[in-house]
Design brief:
7-stranded mixed beta sheet; mainly beta; 11 strands
């Protein structure tokens, strides 16, 4: 069984930093794209950042220059370094991965989410 496990969320003051981690585990053959999304109360889920297996990154406009996504392919893990945090970054952050399990079909998996709260 494949699962994604996020960690690193918490409470931080405006201007502070946090680092999120997301590890894919289970019977995995390969992992292609991995992404971070977030959802604030009353808002739609939005893309924060993505990274391919080759390390090509992309970012949402609201986090460019402040957030950095990285990846450790050997550990099937991605990270999100969040700097210069703002109150509007407050949300539940979800990890997404496109995974080919050892048996079964390639599909998208989501983590359970980790809360990030930025106090002003």
């Amino acid at each position: 069984q494949v699962q994604l496990t996020e960690s690193g969320g918490g409470l931080v003051q405006t201007g502070g930093s946090l680092r999120l981690s997301c590890a894919a585990s289970g019977s995995i053959f390969s992992v292609s794209s991995m992404r971070w999304h977030r959802q604030a109360p009353g808002k739609q889920r939005e893309l924060v950042a993505g990274i391919t297996s080759d390390g090509i990154t992309s970012y949402g406009d609201s986090v460019k220059g402040r957030f950095t996504i990285s990846r450790d392919n050997a550990k099937n893990t991605i990270y999100l370094q969040m700097n210069s945090l703002k109150a509007e970054d407050t949300a539940v952050y979800f990890c997404y991965a496109n995974i080919s399990p050892t048996t079964g079909t390639t599909r998208a998996y989501w983590g359970q989410g980790t809360q990030v709260t930025v106090s002003s």
